Amino acid sequence: MAEAAGKSTALWVLRRLRQAGHQALFAGGCVRDMLLDRRVSDYDVATDASPSQVNALFRRVLLVGEKFGVAMVIHHGQMVEVATFRSDLSYSDGRRPDGVKFTSPREDALRRDFTINGMFYDPVAREVIDYVGGRDDLAAGVIRTIGKPDERFAEDYLRLIRAVRFAVRLGFVIAPATAAAVAKHAPKISAISGERIFDELSKMLSLPSAPEALRKLAELGLARHVLGELAGDDGLWSAALGRVDAVAKRKDLALTLGALLAELPARAVASKIRRWGASNDLRNSLVWLGENIQQWRELKIMSLASFRKLAGHAEFPRLRSLWRVEAQLALGRGDSISRQVTRRLKEIPDGLALPDPLLTGADLIDMGLKPGPAMGKMLAGAYDAQLNLEIQTRKDALAKAKKLLAERDG
Fold this sequence. Notes:
- By secondary structure, the chain is an alpha/beta fold.
- It is 53% helix and 11% strand.
- It has helices at 7-19, 29-35, 51-57, 105-110, 134-140, 149-155, 159-170, 176-185, 194-205, 210-219, 223-227, 229-232, 234-247, 253-261, 266-276, 280-292, 304-311, 316-331, 335-345, 361-366, 373-387, 394-409; strands at 3-4, 24-27, 44-47, 61-65, 70-75, 78-84, 86-88, 100-102, 120-122, 127-129, 142-143, 173-174.
- β9 (120-122) and β10 form a beta hairpin.
- α7 packs parallel to α9 (194-205) and α7 packs across α10 (210-219).
- The radius of gyration is 28 Å and the shape is elongated.
């Protein structure tokens, strides 16, 4: 799969468009980040060439959004988004334009979301082209919609969350009129697909500023509509923010989500993951973390078998981090839990990976036991005995099984 293009590939695309007689400029976020002297993750090109003209100019083109004027040019394994200057027609669903008309750079800038994202850059003339006051807002550290906030948000309600993401990521403030419109339209975020919401949340919660983002979402009334019952309960919300504060610096999305959702019932967590269109693997990880986050309280008295089942799980490193956080918040000290975990880990021979069972269902069938609850119970007991180091060889496991069966029959 092609990766986002670097500057040299984007310049190659831009120059080829110009050689063919078209206007072509860098546009949007790459211009913002260049002016802020931040690392640019990908470069977008805006042009007066139509998608069909772009398709004719380059060998590999994906017409991913032809009716909206968007094409992807692939060159040497790198992908550049090339969008035709356009103005959007009416929005009837608060998510996407009903249609577009191809137009000028100025009109293209005026249909974008925030002033800091509405600038163009001519890399040949080394000139910023700013029709919307983006440079002034960059210098002032302000997130402001282009034009009337109510109109910009009504076009795409995802912009409500994007305003928060840009403000927190850049350390900017949201202009008062823009912030008031976010709060006014906050319930409308429910009209946006869960996948698009989760994409924005993921970008916010993968950064050390995740706690600030959550607080800003709550302040503007968005958290209640994005996170439901979690944001509606002051106790749950306060505890969740405390955990996120403690782990956000790790920049680990699954860990931060685990900290955020830990106290919700498994069914509620699973429901959110489905709504967000996230993976089953993430759902299973978050449910497991929530189910076991309080097990640190039993660490001293927990059987070796129970501890090994936790330690052998792929999510144990994250669970261990959450245990430390929970102990710190509950007792004012997390180091003691870290030391207890270290001591328990030393009890496990030959690494953390769980061993294969010494006793199998086939063994019990050979001994005359039929499949069913009794077999399941015996296998589970034998495996616990194995993990507790009470039986350490297959011979021991078979002998113990025969003894248990003889006692049962007797």
